[in-house]
């Protein structure tokens, strides 16, 4: 594992931001850490990088305990966050020159290629860069030393669609050699290159698995009922957000195996005329998990 945490917890003045998080990021993965605002994603990423210290639990990053990470380890770890502070008075060229001096493994040819690809104005001061340019510059700085691990906190937020595509393409090129841990709300954009997904809410990790497994077990199910009826209780625990309106039943199953098993399960609870199960994209699955968690919390 490139990252492995056990029972990670972090509290800010009475606010439990992260509770008992055990995460495992395999080598070569593009691991998406997802969840609503305030779920604890940034806190988790900062704790992994030793920017924050955990109150409980431990984390190993590239085999080293996070609290012992030092500059020699950061030669292999790239980090870009939209809230990162930069030396605003420097221009792009000077800033990259400064970074170059910090990394013995800095690849000048890659830096130049990324600068060309992202079309960054080398004479412009950082304080005058647009949000998109700033994010692209952070990525150049995080990628040009070919890190083994790249940690990205909201790299796509606030970018226009064209810049978003440029950044995604830049990441795709790197994904061959680098393990990427990415937190993002742009689920449609990241779905194509994500291999693993973890979903956080209220500081806890609700799921973590390969995206393929996640896609296989989630289905949006529409049922035509033989007669109008209300929802019987209890329903299978893997059924999320069930709703009945007239002769229509709709729910999301989180433990789909095949149509045969699904139809048998629906028939057991309802007189069903027809059952239709459609695959779901990452965005719909994340929304379902979030709504289901909120509904259960409110009960
Ligand atoms: N420095 C801080 N002091 C007090 N509370 C904090 C601090 N930083 C974060 N929090 C709280 O911790 C919780 C988790 O915040 P965090 O930034 O980790 O969430 P997030 O999942 O990254 O959210 P977002 O998607 O909005 O960026 C939130 O309730 C937040 O208000």
UniProtKB/TrEMBL annotation:
<dbReference type="InterPro" id="IPR051782">
    <property type="entry name" value="ABC_Transporter_VariousFunc"/>
</dbReference>
<feature type="domain" description="ABC transporter">
    <location>
        <begin position="3"/>
        <end position="227"/>
    </location>
</feature>
<dbReference type="InterPro" id="IPR017871">
    <property type="entry name" value="ABC_transporter-like_CS"/>
</dbReference>
<protein>
    <submittedName>
        <fullName>ABC transporter ATP-binding protein</fullName>
    </submittedName>
</protein>
<keyword id="KW-0547">Nucleotide-binding</keyword>
<keyword id="KW-0813">Transport</keyword>
<dbReference type="InterPro" id="IPR003593">
    <property type="entry name" value="AAA+_ATPase"/>
</dbReference>
<dbReference type="InterPro" id="IPR003439">
    <property type="entry name" value="ABC_transporter-like_ATP-bd"/>
</dbReference>
<dbReference type="InterPro" id="IPR027417">
    <property type="entry name" value="P-loop_NTPase"/>
</dbReference>
<keyword id="KW-0067">ATP-binding</keyword>
<dbReference type="GO" id="GO:0005524">
    <property type="term" value="F:ATP binding"/>
</dbReference>
<dbReference type="Pfam" id="PF00005">
    <property type="entry name" value="ABC_tran"/>
</dbReference>
